[in-house]
Design goal:
CATH topology of the largest domain: Molybdenum Cofactor Biosythetic Enzyme, Chain A
CATH architecture of the largest domain: 3-Layer(aba) Sandwich
Number of domains: 4
Helix content: 10-25%
Strand content: 25-35%
Number of helices: 6
CATH class of the largest domain: Alpha Beta
CATH superfamily of the largest domain: MoaB/Mog-like domain
Largest sheet: 6 strands, mixed
Structural class: alpha+beta
Distance between the termini: 28 Å
Shape: elongated
Strand order of the largest sheet: 7-4-6-5-9-8
Length: 399
């Protein structure tokens, strides 16, 4: 069995970034840059006012000034400021020639065309050309994920396209003769399929694109032939729910071998989620996930997201932090490292983490509100009181 660190290292070594694509500005949010973006112009592009007020020469000691013009945003002043003169100016307006300071309108009085300064400070209230970025400055580095603010920055700089990674395309097969669709009443011995909904939601949260999701009975032939119905050119990552272990009806690993995949590991030294299979076929990636939903939840965040990030060319995220417990925790452990579902939240005492009432790897109820995993080392750990810091992995996080 591999440690999670060793498993993630193998994933990083075996999974290659997808070929980049050029996308328009409106489709960049959530994508990962594959080239550094540099400024093609200075920003701001001209000296401009940061306040509503009056533009003067900062070295002019006058107390009163003649108002010789007005500058609105979007207009270019065609006059010059001389000693004893000022211009009415509004936020974003270009400074007239000769002006180097803006006195806020709250600090002046005006009668007719004469402005008198009541409060004079050293503050210039001017945004200088290029103070945010100069031509050639790197705005965003390769590997940066584009959020709303990064997209707005590109818009501000006039970048209408960028070279980015496409969303990884995923196909998902859920296996098991006992499974019925969520809308169907199960017969004795049957259960509703929750893993399909769980996987679809986690993939959406991770920014991946689910292109096919299907059910297969417990049959090696049915699983292999079903996967083969989706052209290999249409997907990047294959997930198989169930069949990761070595039982008589666990066909996931055998299906990958029949499909020509190379196995890299088949078990993790973690709980829940020990029987995880990772394999590759050329540039394609595959995982066989242990069938229980809590195991799905844990290994997706520990391993599958690492593969998705690698496909996107993003740095592998591992936001492991120490947070104080919000409640007592009967810490667990054993032969394997345990990742205990938990919820990190902000209260009056600041950011804290609460262990969830998780019973077993088949317990979906224990995942409600889960956005973190408390790390419990192998060998067992003593109970911990509220307020004691614990290591936990934050899940709602993408770099």
């Amino acid at each position: 069995m591999l440690s999670i660190d060793a498993a993630r290292l193998q994933i990083a070594e075996q999974v290659l970034p997808l070929p980049p694509v050029t996308l328009p500005l409106g489709e960049l949010r959530g994508r990962v840059l594959r080239e550094p973006l540099v400024a093609s112009e200075d920003f701001p592009g001209f000296d401009r006012s940061a306040m509503d007020g009056y533009a003067i020469c900062a070295e002019d000691p006058s107390a009163s000034f003649s108002v010789v013009g007005e500058v609105r945003p979007g207009s270019l002043p065609d006059f010059e400021i001389f000693p004893g003169q000022c211009a009415r100016i509004f936020t974003g307006g270009a400074l007239p020639k000769g002006a180097s300071q803006v006195v806020m309108q709250e600090d002046v009085s005006r009668e007719g065309e004469v402005m008198t300064v009541r409060v004079r400070t050293g503050a210039r209230h001017v945004r200088r050309r290029g103070e945010d970025a100069r031509v050639g400055d790197e705005l965003l580095g390769a590997g940066r994920r584009i959020g709303a603010s990064e997209a707005a920055l590109l818009a501000q700089m006039g970048r209408m396209h960028a070279l980015v990674s496409p969303a990884p395309r995923v196909i998902h097969w859920v296996t098991g003769d006992e499974l019925v669709p969520p809308g169907q009443d199960p017969k004795p011995g049957q259960i509703r399929d929750s893993n399909s909904t769980l996987v679809a939601g986690m993939l959406a949260d991770a920014g991946a694109r689910l292109v096919a999701q299907r059910h297969s009975p417990d049959s090696l032939e049915a699983l292999v032939s079903g996967i083969q119905t989706v052209p290999p050119a249409d997907w990047d990552l294959l997930l198989i729910s169930g069949g990761a272990s070595v039982g008589d009806y666990d066909f996931g690993l055998r299906a990958l071998r029949d499909l020509g995949f190379t196995l890299h590991f088949h078990a993790l030294n973690v709980r829940p989620g020990k029987p995880l299979v990772f394999a590759t076929r050329g540039v394609q990636v595959a995982f066989v996930l242990p069938g229980n939903p809590a195991s799905h939840f844990v290994v997706f965040h520990l391993a599958v997201r690492a593969a998705l990030e690698r496909l996107e060319g993003a740095p592998l995220s591992w936001p492991l932090v120490e947070l104080p417990l919000a409640s007592d925790f009967d810490a667990v452990g054993g032969a394997r490292t345990t990742f205990w579902p938990a919820r990190a939240s902000v209260g009056e005492a600041g950011l804290r983490v609460s262990p969830l009432k998780w019973q077993s790897s088949g317990d979906l109820f224990g995942l409600r509100g889960g956005n973190a995993l408390i790390l419990c080392g192998s060998g067992g750990e003593p109970a911990k009181k509220a307020g004691v810091p614990v290591k936990c992995l934050l899940l709602d996080w993408r770099q």
